[in-house]
Amino acid sequence: MKNNKWLIGGLLFALLILLFLYMAGVFTPKLPTELQSVQRNVMTLETVTLEAVELPAVREFAGRVVANQRASIGARLTATVAEVLVDVGDEVKQGDVLLRLESDDLDARVQQTEQALSSAQARLNIARKEYARMKELFNKKLIPVSQYDQADSALKSAYADFNQQKAAVVEAETTFGFSVITAPFDGVITQKPVNQGDIATAGMLLLSMYNPESLLIEVNVSESVLPKIALGEMLSVTLPSYKIALLTQINEITPAADSGSRSYLIRLGFKTDKTLYPGSYAKVMVETDTDKVLKVPVEAIYQVGQLDYVRIIKEGKLQTRLIQVGEDYRVRKGLVEGDVVVLNPGEI
Q1: Cβ count within 10 A of residue 55
Q2: R_g of the chain, CA atoms, integer Å
Q3: What are the pLDDT digits (tens) for 227-260?
Q4: Which pLDDT score is estimated for 4?
Q5: Domain range spanning residue 324?
Q6: How crowded is residue 329: how many other Cβ atoms within 10 Å of its Cβ?
Q7: Residues 152, 203: one domain?
Q8: pLDDT digits (tens, 9 = 90+) for 16-32
Q9: Over pLDDT 90: what percentage of the chain?
Q10: Contact in structure between 340 and 296 (CB atoms under 8 Å)
Protein backbone atom coordinates (compact mmCIF):
# COMPACT_ATOMS: atom_id res chain seq x y z
CA MET A 1 0.00 0.00 0.00
CA LYS A 2 2.80 2.33 0.93
CA ASN A 3 4.60 1.60 -2.37
CA ASN A 4 1.39 2.40 -4.29
CA LYS A 5 1.18 5.82 -2.62
CA TRP A 6 4.77 6.59 -3.62
CA LEU A 7 4.05 5.41 -7.18
CA ILE A 8 0.93 7.58 -7.50
CA GLY A 9 2.77 10.55 -6.03
CA GLY A 10 5.63 10.10 -8.47
CA LEU A 11 3.27 9.92 -11.44
CA LEU A 12 1.47 13.10 -10.37
CA PHE A 13 4.78 14.91 -9.95
CA ALA A 14 5.91 13.78 -13.40
CA LEU A 15 2.63 14.96 -14.94
CA LEU A 16 3.03 18.37 -13.30
CA ILE A 17 6.57 18.65 -14.69
CA LEU A 18 5.35 17.73 -18.18
CA LEU A 19 2.49 20.26 -17.93
CA PHE A 20 4.90 22.98 -16.85
CA LEU A 21 7.28 22.19 -19.73
CA TYR A 22 4.37 22.24 -22.20
CA MET A 23 3.17 25.64 -20.96
CA ALA A 24 6.73 26.94 -21.22
CA GLY A 25 6.73 25.97 -24.89
CA VAL A 26 9.42 23.28 -24.65
CA PHE A 27 7.48 20.98 -26.98
CA THR A 28 6.59 23.81 -29.40
CA PRO A 29 8.99 24.59 -32.25
CA LYS A 30 10.59 27.93 -31.39
CA LEU A 31 11.32 30.79 -33.70
CA PRO A 32 15.03 31.43 -33.38
CA THR A 33 16.43 34.84 -32.59
CA GLU A 34 19.06 34.11 -35.22
CA LEU A 35 18.32 34.04 -38.91
CA GLN A 36 16.18 31.09 -40.01
CA SER A 37 15.98 30.09 -43.67
CA VAL A 38 12.69 28.94 -45.12
CA GLN A 39 12.36 27.33 -48.50
CA ARG A 40 9.76 29.24 -50.51
CA ASN A 41 9.24 30.70 -53.94
CA VAL A 42 10.09 34.30 -53.00
CA MET A 43 9.21 35.71 -56.43
CA THR A 44 5.48 35.72 -55.62
CA LEU A 45 5.76 37.66 -52.34
CA GLU A 46 4.94 41.35 -51.88
CA THR A 47 8.01 43.10 -50.50
CA VAL A 48 9.43 46.49 -49.53
CA THR A 49 13.08 47.52 -49.53
CA LEU A 50 13.94 49.53 -46.41
CA GLU A 51 15.43 52.97 -46.92
CA ALA A 52 16.60 55.37 -44.23
CA VAL A 53 14.76 58.71 -44.22
CA GLU A 54 15.37 62.06 -42.56
CA LEU A 55 12.82 62.56 -39.79
CA PRO A 56 12.66 64.99 -36.89
CA ALA A 57 14.01 63.58 -33.68
CA VAL A 58 11.23 63.71 -31.08
CA ARG A 59 11.73 64.29 -27.35
CA GLU A 60 8.92 63.27 -25.04
CA PHE A 61 8.13 65.15 -21.81
CA ALA A 62 5.63 64.40 -19.05
CA GLY A 63 3.03 67.11 -18.48
CA ARG A 64 -0.33 67.50 -16.79
CA VAL A 65 -3.68 69.14 -17.38
CA VAL A 66 -4.27 72.16 -15.12
CA ALA A 67 -6.96 74.81 -14.76
CA ASN A 68 -5.73 78.32 -15.39
CA GLN A 69 -8.73 79.74 -13.52
CA ARG A 70 -9.19 78.07 -10.15
CA ALA A 71 -10.10 79.23 -6.67
CA SER A 72 -9.72 78.01 -3.11
CA ILE A 73 -12.41 79.81 -1.14
CA GLY A 74 -11.61 80.27 2.54
CA ALA A 75 -13.54 81.61 5.52
CA ARG A 76 -12.85 85.24 6.41
CA LEU A 77 -14.41 85.05 9.86
CA THR A 78 -15.11 82.50 12.59
CA ALA A 79 -18.70 81.25 12.50
CA THR A 80 -20.85 78.13 12.33
CA VAL A 81 -21.64 76.76 8.85
CA ALA A 82 -25.37 77.36 8.49
CA GLU A 83 -25.96 75.95 5.01
CA VAL A 84 -23.99 74.26 2.22
CA LEU A 85 -25.80 74.57 -1.10
CA VAL A 86 -23.40 72.68 -3.41
CA ASP A 87 -21.61 69.36 -3.64
CA VAL A 88 -18.45 68.16 -5.38
CA GLY A 89 -18.98 68.03 -9.14
CA ASP A 90 -21.76 70.63 -9.22
CA GLU A 91 -21.62 73.23 -11.97
CA VAL A 92 -22.16 76.79 -10.75
CA LYS A 93 -22.50 80.24 -12.28
CA GLN A 94 -20.72 83.40 -11.19
CA GLY A 95 -22.58 84.97 -8.27
CA ASP A 96 -24.41 81.77 -7.21
CA VAL A 97 -24.63 81.38 -3.42
CA LEU A 98 -22.54 78.34 -2.47
CA LEU A 99 -22.50 78.43 1.33
CA ARG A 100 -23.81 80.49 4.24
CA LEU A 101 -22.37 81.04 7.70
CA GLU A 102 -24.40 81.90 10.80
CA SER A 103 -25.01 85.65 10.64
CA ASP A 104 -27.48 86.55 13.41
CA ASP A 105 -24.82 88.38 15.45
CA LEU A 106 -23.48 90.03 12.33
CA ASP A 107 -26.94 91.23 11.33
CA ALA A 108 -27.48 92.66 14.81
CA ARG A 109 -24.15 94.45 14.56
CA VAL A 110 -25.21 96.02 11.24
CA GLN A 111 -28.47 97.28 12.78
CA GLN A 112 -26.64 98.72 15.79
CA THR A 113 -24.15 100.61 13.66
CA GLU A 114 -26.92 101.91 11.40
CA GLN A 115 -28.79 103.25 14.44
CA ALA A 116 -25.60 104.86 15.74
CA LEU A 117 -25.07 106.44 12.33
CA SER A 118 -28.60 107.87 12.36
CA SER A 119 -27.95 109.44 15.78
CA ALA A 120 -24.64 110.86 14.58
CA GLN A 121 -26.39 112.29 11.52
CA ALA A 122 -28.97 114.01 13.75
CA ARG A 123 -26.24 115.51 15.97
CA LEU A 124 -24.38 116.70 12.89
CA ASN A 125 -27.49 118.44 11.56
CA ILE A 126 -27.95 120.24 14.89
CA ALA A 127 -24.26 121.22 14.99
CA ARG A 128 -24.48 122.63 11.46
CA LYS A 129 -27.48 124.81 12.31
CA GLU A 130 -25.87 125.99 15.54
CA TYR A 131 -22.62 126.81 13.77
CA ALA A 132 -24.47 128.75 11.06
CA ARG A 133 -26.33 130.76 13.70
CA MET A 134 -23.18 131.49 15.72
CA LYS A 135 -21.30 132.52 12.60
CA GLU A 136 -23.97 135.03 11.66
CA LEU A 137 -23.97 136.49 15.18
CA PHE A 138 -20.17 136.60 15.24
CA ASN A 139 -20.08 138.45 11.91
CA LYS A 140 -22.45 141.03 13.43
CA LYS A 141 -20.14 141.17 16.45
CA LEU A 142 -22.99 140.15 18.73
CA ILE A 143 -21.08 137.24 20.39
CA PRO A 144 -17.50 136.85 21.55
CA VAL A 145 -14.98 134.81 19.54
CA SER A 146 -14.92 132.11 22.24
CA GLN A 147 -18.59 131.33 21.68
CA TYR A 148 -18.01 131.10 17.92
CA ASP A 149 -15.01 128.81 18.46
CA GLN A 150 -17.12 126.59 20.66
CA ALA A 151 -19.71 126.15 17.88
CA ASP A 152 -16.93 125.48 15.37
CA SER A 153 -15.40 122.78 17.60
CA ALA A 154 -18.82 121.19 18.13
CA LEU A 155 -19.35 121.01 14.36
CA LYS A 156 -15.95 119.42 13.78
CA SER A 157 -16.60 116.88 16.54
CA ALA A 158 -20.00 116.05 15.03
CA TYR A 159 -18.38 115.51 11.62
CA ALA A 160 -15.73 113.22 13.14
CA ASP A 161 -18.35 111.19 15.01
CA PHE A 162 -20.48 110.88 11.86
CA ASN A 163 -17.53 109.66 9.77
CA GLN A 164 -16.58 107.19 12.49
CA GLN A 165 -20.10 105.75 12.64
CA LYS A 166 -20.27 105.61 8.84
CA ALA A 167 -17.03 103.58 8.76
CA ALA A 168 -18.47 101.27 11.42
CA VAL A 169 -21.51 100.61 9.23
CA VAL A 170 -19.30 99.81 6.22
CA GLU A 171 -17.20 97.45 8.35
CA ALA A 172 -20.28 95.71 9.78
CA GLU A 173 -21.85 95.31 6.34
CA THR A 174 -18.58 93.98 4.90
CA THR A 175 -18.25 91.45 7.72
CA PHE A 176 -21.87 90.43 7.21
CA GLY A 177 -21.09 89.91 3.51
CA PHE A 178 -18.35 87.44 4.48
CA SER A 179 -21.08 85.12 5.81
CA VAL A 180 -22.45 84.56 2.29
CA ILE A 181 -20.05 82.68 -0.01
CA THR A 182 -20.70 83.16 -3.73
CA ALA A 183 -19.04 81.75 -6.87
CA PRO A 184 -16.33 84.09 -8.19
CA PHE A 185 -16.73 82.70 -11.74
CA ASP A 186 -18.51 79.98 -13.74
CA GLY A 187 -17.06 76.61 -12.85
CA VAL A 188 -17.19 73.20 -11.19
CA ILE A 189 -16.87 72.44 -7.47
CA THR A 190 -13.86 70.19 -6.75
CA GLN A 191 -13.64 70.23 -2.94
CA LYS A 192 -16.15 70.64 -0.12
CA PRO A 193 -14.39 69.83 3.16
CA VAL A 194 -17.09 71.35 5.42
CA ASN A 195 -20.67 70.44 6.27
CA GLN A 196 -23.59 72.12 7.98
CA GLY A 197 -22.88 72.63 11.66
CA ASP A 198 -19.10 72.74 11.35
CA ILE A 199 -17.20 75.63 12.91
CA ALA A 200 -15.38 77.63 10.26
CA THR A 201 -12.39 79.65 11.39
CA ALA A 202 -10.74 82.52 9.55
CA GLY A 203 -8.51 81.14 6.80
CA MET A 204 -10.13 77.69 6.79
CA LEU A 205 -10.84 76.15 3.35
CA LEU A 206 -14.56 76.03 2.60
CA LEU A 207 -14.73 75.17 -1.11
CA SER A 208 -12.52 74.74 -4.18
CA MET A 209 -13.56 75.15 -7.79
CA TYR A 210 -12.17 75.56 -11.30
CA ASN A 211 -13.31 76.79 -14.69
CA PRO A 212 -13.35 73.86 -17.19
CA GLU A 213 -13.10 76.36 -20.05
CA SER A 214 -9.67 77.46 -18.80
CA LEU A 215 -7.86 74.11 -19.01
CA LEU A 216 -4.32 74.04 -20.36
CA ILE A 217 -1.31 71.74 -20.22
CA GLU A 218 1.79 72.50 -18.18
CA VAL A 219 5.08 70.76 -18.92
CA ASN A 220 8.71 71.26 -17.91
CA VAL A 221 11.16 70.98 -20.80
CA SER A 222 14.93 70.67 -20.59
CA GLU A 223 17.25 73.59 -21.21
CA SER A 224 18.59 72.01 -24.41
CA VAL A 225 15.10 71.98 -25.96
CA LEU A 226 14.24 75.59 -25.15
CA PRO A 227 16.01 77.14 -28.20
CA LYS A 228 13.99 74.86 -30.49
CA ILE A 229 10.53 76.09 -29.41
CA ALA A 230 8.79 79.45 -29.60
CA LEU A 231 5.56 81.14 -28.57
CA GLY A 232 2.71 80.22 -30.89
CA GLU A 233 4.36 77.00 -32.05
CA MET A 234 2.18 73.88 -32.23
CA LEU A 235 3.11 70.74 -30.26
CA SER A 236 1.57 67.26 -30.38
CA VAL A 237 0.21 65.92 -27.09
CA THR A 238 -1.37 62.59 -26.18
CA LEU A 239 -3.55 61.90 -23.15
CA PRO A 240 -3.22 58.15 -22.48
CA SER A 241 -6.09 57.98 -19.98
CA TYR A 242 -8.51 59.45 -22.51
CA LYS A 243 -6.91 57.76 -25.55
CA ILE A 244 -6.88 61.03 -27.47
CA ALA A 245 -4.28 63.16 -29.26
CA LEU A 246 -4.32 66.95 -29.26
CA LEU A 247 -2.61 69.68 -31.23
CA THR A 248 -1.65 72.35 -28.71
CA GLN A 249 -0.20 75.84 -28.97
CA ILE A 250 2.57 77.27 -26.80
CA ASN A 251 0.93 80.17 -24.96
CA GLU A 252 3.60 80.87 -22.37
CA ILE A 253 7.27 80.09 -21.75
CA THR A 254 8.55 80.84 -18.26
CA PRO A 255 11.77 82.87 -18.71
CA ALA A 256 13.41 81.54 -15.52
CA ALA A 257 14.58 77.95 -15.09
CA ASP A 258 13.81 75.77 -12.10
CA SER A 259 16.97 75.93 -9.99
CA GLY A 260 16.85 72.23 -9.14
CA SER A 261 16.05 70.59 -12.48
CA ARG A 262 17.28 73.32 -14.85
CA SER A 263 14.01 72.95 -16.72
CA TYR A 264 11.60 75.57 -18.04
CA LEU A 265 7.84 75.57 -17.55
CA ILE A 266 5.73 76.04 -20.67
CA ARG A 267 1.94 76.29 -20.90
CA LEU A 268 0.00 74.89 -23.84
CA GLY A 269 -3.48 75.92 -24.92
CA PHE A 270 -5.83 73.53 -26.69
CA LYS A 271 -9.42 72.93 -27.77
CA THR A 272 -11.32 69.66 -27.42
CA ASP A 273 -14.88 68.41 -27.14
CA LYS A 274 -13.78 65.80 -24.61
CA THR A 275 -14.39 66.32 -20.88
CA LEU A 276 -10.95 66.53 -19.26
CA TYR A 277 -10.01 66.86 -15.61
CA PRO A 278 -7.17 68.77 -13.94
CA GLY A 279 -4.27 66.57 -12.93
CA SER A 280 -4.54 64.22 -15.91
CA TYR A 281 -1.23 62.93 -17.32
CA ALA A 282 -0.14 64.23 -20.71
CA LYS A 283 2.73 63.23 -23.02
CA VAL A 284 4.16 66.24 -24.85
CA MET A 285 6.23 65.65 -27.98
CA VAL A 286 8.84 68.22 -28.99
CA GLU A 287 10.59 67.92 -32.36
CA THR A 288 14.29 68.70 -32.20
CA ASP A 289 17.02 68.10 -34.82
CA THR A 290 16.36 65.82 -37.77
CA ASP A 291 17.74 62.31 -37.63
CA LYS A 292 18.25 59.57 -40.20
CA VAL A 293 15.99 56.70 -39.19
CA LEU A 294 14.84 53.37 -40.57
CA LYS A 295 11.14 52.60 -40.42
CA VAL A 296 9.52 49.24 -41.05
CA PRO A 297 5.95 49.03 -42.42
CA VAL A 298 3.49 47.84 -39.80
CA GLU A 299 2.17 45.34 -42.38
CA ALA A 300 5.56 43.60 -42.30
CA ILE A 301 5.49 42.89 -38.55
CA TYR A 302 3.94 39.88 -36.89
CA GLN A 303 4.10 38.92 -33.24
CA VAL A 304 4.87 35.75 -31.36
CA GLY A 305 3.96 36.38 -27.76
CA GLN A 306 5.43 39.77 -26.89
CA LEU A 307 8.15 39.62 -29.57
CA ASP A 308 8.12 41.32 -32.98
CA TYR A 309 9.27 39.42 -36.07
CA VAL A 310 9.60 40.11 -39.79
CA ARG A 311 10.44 37.93 -42.75
CA ILE A 312 13.12 39.13 -45.12
CA ILE A 313 14.45 37.89 -48.44
CA LYS A 314 18.19 37.43 -48.52
CA GLU A 315 20.15 35.72 -51.28
CA GLY A 316 16.89 34.42 -52.74
CA LYS A 317 15.83 32.76 -49.52
CA LEU A 318 13.10 33.62 -47.03
CA GLN A 319 14.41 34.27 -43.54
CA THR A 320 12.80 35.06 -40.18
CA ARG A 321 14.30 37.82 -38.08
CA LEU A 322 13.59 39.10 -34.57
CA ILE A 323 13.42 42.91 -34.42
CA GLN A 324 12.93 45.75 -31.96
CA VAL A 325 10.91 48.81 -32.94
CA GLY A 326 10.16 52.07 -31.19
CA GLU A 327 7.80 54.98 -31.77
CA ASP A 328 6.25 55.11 -35.25
CA TYR A 329 7.82 51.69 -35.93
CA ARG A 330 11.33 53.09 -36.05
CA VAL A 331 13.82 50.23 -36.14
CA ARG A 332 15.99 49.94 -33.06
CA LYS A 333 17.52 46.55 -33.74
CA GLY A 334 17.37 43.68 -36.21
CA LEU A 335 17.19 45.41 -39.60
CA VAL A 336 19.48 47.57 -41.71
CA GLU A 337 19.00 49.80 -44.73
CA GLY A 338 18.56 47.74 -47.88
CA ASP A 339 16.87 44.78 -46.21
CA VAL A 340 13.92 43.44 -48.21
CA VAL A 341 10.97 42.74 -45.90
CA VAL A 342 7.87 40.75 -46.77
CA LEU A 343 4.47 42.37 -46.32
CA ASN A 344 1.70 40.41 -44.57
CA PRO A 345 4.07 37.62 -43.46
CA GLY A 346 1.39 36.04 -41.30
CA GLU A 347 -0.27 34.74 -44.48
CA ILE A 348 2.81 32.72 -45.44
Answers
A1: 15
A2: 40
A3: 889 999 999 999 999 999 999 999 999 988 887 8
A4: 55
A5: 31-50+295-348
A6: 16
A7: yes
A8: 666 555 554 455 444 44
A9: 63
A10: no
CATH number of the domain where residue 36 is located:
2.40.420
- Read off the pLDDT band of 94 (50, 70, 90): very high
Q: If you write DSSP's letter for every residue of 132-166 in order, what string do you get?
A: HHHHHHHHTT-S-HHHHHHHHHHHHHHHHHHHHHH
270 plus 344 within the same structural domain: no
Look up residue 280 and give its amino acid: S
Instruction: Please provide the DSSP assignment of 97-137 as one string.
Output: EEEEE--HHHHHHHHHHHHHHHHHHHHHHHHHHHHHHHHHH
What's the DSSP call for residue 9?
H
pTM: predicted TM-score of the whole model, two decimal places:
0.60
DSSP helix/strand/coil, 172: helix
Residue 339 DSSP SS3: coil
pLDDT for the residue numbered 32: 47
In angstroms, rounded to a whole number, what is the distance separating the alpha carbons of residues 262 and 291? 25
Residue 19 has what pLDDT?
A: 56
Q: CB of 277 within 8 A of CB of 210?
A: no
| Residues 12, 7: Cα–Cα separation, whole Å | 9
Question: Cα torsion for 146, 152, 157, 163, to the nearest 10°?
Answer: -170
